[in-house]
């Protein structure tokens, strides 16, 4: 495009300042939804881009391309809405809550929740599947035990993202080394140095929080009322735990997410008709509008009134708004411009890691997409890490430490929107308790400034990389 040019940094900052002011005013003063300020920012970014020579057709194509990257997330969200509705009416979620209330106690609940979610997500490679299966049940158990729901959600998020980050089955665990030029298992082993200590500290913090509830006298009458309410409204049996186990196994054996979740929906519908005697018409109603209980226990009614396609519309629309804004800023090079300016601050290894962490978190905030938070900084900083003689696995680790782990903390990010839709807790509410997600970037920055585990290349390795660059340039020129 002849008139296209790099957008000046001051104009990029103008767009960002508008975003911050619009979001702050909407949330703090109007107590409104974030959709509108995000769309308004997309409009402002578009005006700035057009003023710099970008044509609307080019920007529109960029928006559509960015939205297309989120379509899998949207389809999974809608499917999870179906899953939650069928799993509640079938008695699957009530059974998980029932047995959880019998086994877990307030003192160990947060630690146990974090570990359970870490194990499940490590096996599946998916924080989303973990939250949609054991996560929704653990929220119910926590509520029954009197543990604040934001704390319970923080434990679920921490555990789920530990496994998501460390599992070779995870898409982000494969994407980060691909962007940095690292090998998958080198990447996973290198992450142990940051993620391991972060998990240990996280479990200690949850243990301290849990100890505050260990000494309190349980409301056994209230818990028994919940158990009686569940057993009177649903047929409760260990056999109803089969569908979540099968869904987890499907993911472990690399069945794609959508078919696996749809399989869970089908199993939920079959179990609802077989064990709860649910009419087919009621099943169709629940899959769209969600489960609407009319039990004698008001607390159970509020706990189980979940699911359905309709429950995910807010989240889906938020993702579309965020992807629109992110599409404009990515396509027109605004994110690249900011990253280049930030890189001038990287005078040593510590500041380089700090800039990378900030760039990943910033991309999650502005672009609203976890994958972009790995791709954009990874693409921008790959050669800089190499020229500093840092092995590629250092960059891939930093990308995951910050990009992957900060994504569920942003309400308009695909991950934050998803977790809010599934767990029913706003990201800003569980953010203070998502200890692993908060600690991991800090541990990564600490290693950057101290040089701990920041492995350097040998001269032979660096020369091999230079030869690869020359070969890639030659191939590009000949094509």
Q: How would you characterize the overall build of this protein?
A:
- The chain is mostly helical and 479 residues long.
- Among the domains are: 1-54; 71-312, no CATH class.
- 78% of the residues lie in helices and 0% in strands.
- The chain is built from 24 helices and no strands.
- Helix 10 packs across helix 23.
- It is globular and about 70 Å long.
- The mean pLDDT is 85.
**pLDDT averaged over residues:** 85
Helical/strand content category: mainly alpha
Strand content: under 5%
Largest sheet: none
Count the E strands.
0
C-alpha-based Rg, rounded? 24 Å
Overview features:
479 residues; globular; 24 helices; mainly alpha; single chain
Short summary of the structure?
This protein has 479 residues and is an all-alpha fold. It is 78% helix and 0% strand.
Sequence-ordered SSE layout with sheet pairings:
Blueprint: H1 9-29, H2 35-51, H3 56-69, H4 71-89, H5 92-103, H6 106-124, H7 127-145, H8 149-166, H9 171-180, H10 184-214, H11 220-233, H12 242-252, H13 257-275, H14 280-289, H15 298-304, H16 313-331, H17 334-343, H18 349-367, H19 370-387, H20 392-406, H21 414-423, H22 427-430, H23 435-450, H24 459-478
Helix pairs in contact: 1-2, 2-16, 3-16, 4-13, 4-14, 4-21, 5-7, 5-11, 6-7, 6-8, 6-10, 7-8, 7-12, 7-21, 8-10, 9-19, 9-20, 10-20, 10-23, 12-13, 16-21, 17-18, 17-19, 18-19, 18-20, 18-23, 19-20, 20-23
């Amino acid at each position: 495009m002849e008139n296209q040019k790099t957008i000046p940094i001051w104009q990029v900052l103008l767009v960002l300042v508008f975003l911050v002011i619009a979001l702050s005013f909407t949330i703090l003063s109007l107590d409104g939804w974030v959709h509108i300020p995000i769309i308004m920012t997309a409009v402002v970014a578009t005006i700035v881009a057009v003023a710099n020579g970008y044509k609307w057709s080019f920007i529109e194509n960029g928006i559509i391309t960015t939205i297309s990257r989120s379509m899998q997330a949207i389809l999974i969200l809608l499917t999870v809405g179906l899953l939650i509705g069928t799993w509640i009416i079938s008695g699957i979620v009530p059974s998980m809550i029932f047995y959880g209330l019998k086994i877990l106690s307030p003192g160990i609940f947060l630690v146990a929740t974090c570990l359970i979610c870490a194990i499940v997500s490590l096996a599946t490679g998916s924080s989303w599947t973990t939250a949609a299966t054991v996560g929704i049940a653990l929220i119910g158990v926590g509520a029954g035990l009197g543990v604040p729901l934001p704390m319970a959600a923080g434990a679920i998020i921490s555990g789920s993202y530990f496994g998501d980050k460390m599992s070779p089955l995870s898409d982000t665990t494969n994407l980060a080394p691909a962007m940095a030029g690292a090998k998958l298992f080198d990447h996973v082993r290198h992450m142990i140095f940051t993620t391991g200590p972060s998990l240990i500290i996280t479990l200690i913090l949850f243990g301290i929080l849990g100890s505050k509830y260990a000494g309190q006298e349980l409301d056994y009458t209230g818990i028994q009322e919940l158990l009686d309410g569940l057993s009177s409204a649903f047929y409760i049996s260990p056999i109803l735990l089969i569908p979540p186990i099968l869904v987890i196994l499907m993911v472990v054996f690399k069945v794609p997410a959508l078919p696996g979740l749809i399989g869970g929906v089908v199993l939920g519908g079959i179990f609802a008709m077989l064990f709860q005697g649910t009419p087919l018409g009621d099943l169709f109603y629940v899959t769209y509008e969600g489960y609407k209980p009319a039990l004698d226990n008001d607390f159970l009614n509020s706990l189980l009134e979940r699911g359905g396609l309709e429950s995910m519309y807010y989240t889906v629309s938020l993702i579309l708004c965020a992807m629109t804004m992110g599409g404009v800023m990515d396509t027109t090079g605004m994110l690249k411009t900011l990253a280049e300016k930030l890189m001038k601050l990287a005078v040593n290894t510590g500041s380089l890691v700090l800039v990378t962490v900030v760039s990943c978190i910033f991309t999650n905030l502005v672009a609203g997409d976890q994958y972009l938070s790995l791709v954009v900084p990874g693409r921008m900083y790959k050669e800089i890490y190499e020229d500093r003689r840092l092995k590629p696995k250092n960059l891939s680790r930093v990308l995951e430490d910050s990009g992957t782990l900060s994504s569920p903390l942003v309400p308009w990010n695909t991950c934050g929107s998803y977790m809010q839709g599934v767990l029913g807790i706003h990201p800003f509410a569980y953010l203070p308790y998502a200890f692993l997600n908060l600690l991991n970037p800090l541990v990564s920055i600490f290693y950057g400034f101290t040089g701990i585990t920041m492995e350097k290349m040998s001269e032979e390795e660096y020369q091999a990389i230079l030869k690869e660059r020359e070969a890639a340039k030659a191939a590009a020129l000949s094509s």
